């Protein structure tokens, strides 16, 4: 089995690559190495003969054709994307180019390759997407795979568009696809701009811990290593043409999540005053969805997958990882344009 993983130098992609290689799967990681990439995330597999890296951009169709010809993958797992909602509000163009046109280029390259091989049933194009395509929920209800799409941010609209392209390539050309839509991930190697690392790192630095609005927004939190396990499960056992929602079964208000992290830090690295004293409410993000929550029935009943950790357990592991890996996040914070976003508040 040889996998072509796009975006494998990012947060979730690198977790997928590490897990796949540890299970004896050969992986070709295709990544353009944007600001969000970090090859250090792949240190555990860098010298493994099952791991290969190709620097390429999904906006470049010729480069994609070359990669398919050279590596002959059995399946594609497509994670490369512009992924930060706040950045999509500041500059939506890059999200259209990579998430929409880039996905189109990858579908075309995968289709030409698959057709050239005689359209094998065993081939898979696994598209990794977000629950944000469904828009927002009120106080009750859950997203199922049949919830109508209603994206509210440029990021979620670009991901929704990419999901539709993948579906259309299955319906029109017969390409064997699976799609997964997951909730907010957190865990080791999470880029320092995202909510969980912002809370940990600002707390440790004695800086204000920014929370949008009153922190009432609700998210379902999925530990990234559980997500990687779910993705490999769907790739192997998912039904061709089907979508699966992946959640952590861990709904929490942002303010409660932030308080949980502060309490863990109080225990693992006590400061003079409780870290929660640093919480500061900041002006809400425009179009900020109130609540996302996943109905995990399909993946649970059809594929027998469920998350292995609770939010408390996953956060404990995550906080400990950041305490143990200062060099990793300090190097990223020192990069141009990253540090300035710390303190702006984000919800994923
Ligand atoms: P990330 O921003 O950490 O990583 C994205 C990776 O894609 C980076 O390594 C980057 O270099 C690469 N990339 C970006 N543009 C590229 C291009 N044009 N060509 C090739 N490579 C390119 O993202 P992530 O958080 O790991 O998310 C991975 C996928 O999962 C994305 O598709 C995202 O939409 C989806 N997702 C993420 C979350 C989450 O909580 N992080 C939740 C749901 C879905």
From TrEMBL:
Class in the EC hierarchy, top level: lyase
Designated gene of the protein: rffG_2
Endoplasmic reticulum as UniProt keyword: no
Catalytic reaction list: dTDP-alpha-D-glucose = dTDP-4-dehydro-6-deoxy-alpha-D-glucose + H2O
Obligatory cofactor(s): NAD(+)
Family per similarity comment: Belongs to the NAD(P)-dependent epimerase/dehydratase family. dTDP-glucose dehydratase subfamily.
Organism lineage string: Bacteria, Pseudomonadati, Pseudomonadota, Alphaproteobacteria, Rhodobacterales
SUPFAM superfamilies, per the entry: NAD(P)-binding Rossmann-fold domains
Record protein name field: dTDP-glucose 4,6-dehydratase
Keyword Lyase on entry: yes
Matches recorded under CDD domains: dTDP_GD_SDR_e (cd05246)
Pfam family, one: GDP_Man_Dehyd
EC numbers for this chain: 4.2.1.46
Top-level taxonomic group: Bacteria
Gene3D superfamilies linked: NAD(P)-binding Rossmann-like Domain, UDP-galactose 4-epimerase, domain 1
Domain NAD(P)-binding residue range list: 4-318
Organism in which the protein naturally occurs: Roseovarius litorisediminis
Molecular-function GO terms, alphabetical: dTDP-glucose 4,6-dehydratase activity
UniProt keyword terms in alphabetical order: Lyase, NAD
